[in-house]
Amino acid sequence: MCALLLGGCLGDEDRRESSHIGGDSVTVYASLPRHGVSAAAAAAVAAGQRLALADAGARAGELRVRLVQLDSTDPDDRLWDPDRVSANAKRAADDPTAIAYLGELDYGASAVSVPITNEAGILQVSPGDGLTSLTDTPPGRPPAGPDRLYPSSRRSFLRLTPSDLLQAETMLERIRARGAERLAVLFDRQVYGRELGDQLVALARRDGPEPVLSEEYRDRVDEIPDLGRALAESRPDAVAYAGVAGAGSGRLLAAIDTRLPGVPVYASAGMLARDRARPIPRAPERVEALSAVPPARELPAAGRRLLHRLRADVGPTAARPEALYGYESMRLVLDAIREAGPDRARALRAGLRIRMRQSPLGDYEVRASGDVGKGRFAVYSLRDGRFEFEEMAR
After folding, report:
1. What is the mean pLDDT of the chain?
2. At 330, which helix (H) or strand (E)?
3. Given this model, what pLDDT does residue 170 score?
4. 83 CB contacts (<8 Å, ≥6 apart)?
5. Rounded CA separation 28/67 (Å)
6. Residue 332 C-alpha from the chain's centroid
7. Residue 90 belongs to what H/E stretch?
């Protein structure tokens, strides 16, 4: 028994020793898409991260902090690339000076990097990945709970935006408020769309409206006519779309409008991931999409001031609200390093400590799960082919 206890104690000492970072500097890695539909948002997030580090004098307490920003895409990628994400996380895990990892940005990419950074004992903070299964077991997908992502059996991930489960609940609340009784759910083939689509169906079965169709859209224009016919045959009075905008999004919306005239479409945040300068052709008017990122006018005064600084110092492309999530992700990590010193394990515990934080995004609560409390969503309505801010969903 004594030998077992001694072995356990020595194991704890070994883990503490291995988490210590020698020298007077530490490294923070960031993984963001430089290509594809999220590139513009990622550029703003990256600018926010750099500004937060500059505001701190590139230091956290007595430690110098180096930022390494990595690309999670290949030039031809529409979304993140799993091999790139994996390589980025492994680079951080293999660096003895790495103390934190900022990523991934969105659409479930963190499901690839979290197991790698978790096994290395590195704090991971995502500016905006809402994938429910990173922090909770999503309804409709019991095997896809978060335990599979944390080989160390300890949580190491924190995100700054609400989960996709909250997005699904908010979307269904709005659908029910409009009196819908029959719901068709479309989802794309990405991990983000599949998981969110399953949540919409599971929640609708529990609370309504009745889900009468659940169908995958593979972003193939030639399949849209068949999909339109399936929708018409199911006779929904509302359609929910869970997925990321693609080349066929406009045609899909037009087909829904043709087959189901007057039936509203409720889309997830992924529908907003498109070139804002190009209107959607033949777009119907009864389409709304939710976003976890509010427009600048809905931000606190401190957030608007930061965007003004970015506009003056970097340019208008950096002065997007997403920049504040980059700023706060870096700021949170710097605070954890300042509290913990050059130690991965202590920085992880400091970053995930349950507390309230004040930030340019407003006050938020850090929870043990890695979520930050219940958030609000911005509602955008499609008008003349472009999504325009309508209101904040309460």
Report:
1. 93
2. helix 322-340
3. 97
4. none
5. 5
6. 17
7. helix 82-94
Confidence of residue 276 (pLDDT cuts 50, 70, 90): confident
Q: Is residue 208 part of a domain?
A: yes
Pick the closest to residue 357 from 331, 318, 392, 337 (CA basis): 331
> What is each CA distance from 23 to 15, 67, 96, in whole angstroms?
18, 16, 10
Identify whether residues 285 and 336 lie together within a single domain.
no
d(CA 140, CA 316): 41
Residue showing tokens 């965007």: 307
Enclosing domain of residue 90: 25-161+299-362
How many Cα atoms sit within 13 Å of 235 on the Cβ side? 1
250's CB contacts (< 8 A; 6+ apart) are 280, 281, 282, 283
Same domain for 310 and 389?
A: no
Helix axes 191-207, 164-177, angle to 10 degrees: 50
The model's confidence at residue 17, banded by pLDDT at 50, 70 and 90, is low
For residue 185, the surrounding DSSP H or E stretch is strand 182-187
Per residue in 281-295, pLDDT (tens digit) is 777 889 999 999 999
**Which residues touch 180 (CB under 8 Å, ≥6 apart)?**
209, 236, 237, 238, 264
Task: State the Cα–Cα distance between residues 263 and 286, nearest whole angstrom.
Answer: 7
- In this structure, what CATH number is given to the domain that contains residue 256? 3.40.50.2300
At 332-359, the pLDDT tens digits run 999 999 999 999 999 999 999 999 999 9
The span from the CA of 99 to the CA of 341, in Å, is 10
State how far the Cα of 168 lies from the Cα of 240, in Å rounded to an integer: 10
Q: What is the mean pLDDT of residues 127-148?
A: 91
